[in-house]
Design goal:
It is built from one helix and no strands. With 53 residues, it is mostly helical. Keywords: Membrane, Transmembrane, Transmembrane helix.
Length: 53
Amino acid sequence: MGEYIDVGIQSSILPLSLILSSIVIGIYALLGLETENDDDDSDSGSGGLMQPI
């Protein structure tokens, strides 16, 4: 009735790249490589959105 098409190599690349990118994003988030922006703007002494009362 229909043909069997073997797509083993093509279909195994997608989950592998998904796992690899998830690991890279996880390491990036754990190391905190991005500059964190907290609401009290701790870099300058003037305070930001969250000033103490």
